[in-house]
Design a protein that fits this description.
Layout: E1 9-14, H1 16-20, H2 28-43, E2 47-52, H3 60-65, H4 70-94, E3 99-103, E4 112-113, H5 116-124, E5 128-132, H6 142-152, E6 157-162, E7 168-169, E8 181-182, E9 184-186, H7 187-193, H8 200-208, E10 212-217, H9 223-228, E11 235-238
Parallel strand pairs: 1-2, 1-6, 2-5, 3-4, 3-5, 6-10, 9-11
Antiparallel strand pairs: 7-8, 10-11
Bound molecules: uridine-5'-diphosphate.
């Protein structure tokens, strides 16, 4: 065993659905619970970066379906993620954790710009870094941003928190009684099987750069702390 290993540094994805508790707006009690679980892991020495989604406010693709210009709608989606970042920042600070928000669209009064080396420095100092505004580019998803930010800030693993499911299944377990829970999955199988774990861009970027991932359920009490500390509770996805 490598006892001189670098400290554990991980990237956690929290979807907009989580922040909204399934509705539009913010479910502060849910965010507080997750923030408190993150705080436990941070106090145990885990370095935590977070990418926040924005589906509880706007999804560009949905607005485009209703006739809006896709790129402009995507920018609205990205701005929505920043509101979630600020909510999470507030509740993490209340839980005693030092935080920084960095956004891919500059908004100096509200957050730092995304500066990878500075993000790494924050992580080394035990601050949680919350990445907002996605990639700053339309037609991308926050899932893809997770893989990119994890690679650039040298995270060892991406932890994809999900609502309503606790792992990847061969089919939707809420609809198909024959759905099988997968302990492990390869990126290629996820891409070819189109399992709906996340978008294909994210999967292929993770595969091409050998980034490990775990897909897990956010709902069980303590789950967030457990995955952050390195326990396997969901589906591991690897090359
Ligand atoms: N978005 C984007 N580029 C990015 C990340 C996000 O255009 O790099 C937009 C896109 O419109 C997306 C919305 O922001 O629908 C919210 O992000 P996402 O749907 O990934 O959030 P989640 O589903 O995780 O809540």
């Amino acid at each position: 065993d490598d006892t001189s290993a670098a400290p554990r540094r991980v990237l956690l994805k929290l979807s907009g659905e989580t922040f909204g508790g399934g509705a539009v707006g913010l479910a502060v009690d849910v965010i507080r619970r997750i923030a408190e679980e993150i705080a436990v892991a941070v106090r145990a020495g885990v370095q935590v970066a977070i990418v926040v989604g924005g589906g509880n406010f706007f999804r560009g693709a949905e607005l485009a379906q209703n006739g809006m210009d896709r790129a402009r709608a995507d920018y609205m989606g990205m701005l929505g993620t920043v509101m979630n970042c600020l909510a999470l920042q507030d509740l993490l600070e209340q839980a005693g954790v030092s935080t920084r928000v960095q956004t891919a669209i500059t908004m100096g009064q509200v957050a730092e710009p995304y500066i990878p080396l500075r993000a790494i420095r924050h992580l080394e100092k035990g601050r949680v870094v919350i990445f907002g505004a996605g990639a700053g580019m339309p037609y991308f998803s926050t899932d893809t941003v997770c893989v990119q930010r994890a690679l650039e800030t040298h995270c060892q693993e991406v932890l994809m928190g999900k609502n309503g499911v606790d792992a990847v299944y061969t089919a939707d377990p809420r609809k198909d009684p024959d759905a099988r829970r997968l302990e492990h999955l390869s990126y290629t199988d996820a891409i070819v099987g189109d399992l709906g774990v996340m978008d294909q861009t994210a999967l292929s970027m993770a595969r091409d750069n050998d980034m490990q991932m775990q897909v897990f359920g956010l709902e069980g009490a303590g789950n967030v702390t457990r995955v952050l500390r390195g326990e396997k509770i969901g589906t591991t996805v690897t090359v």
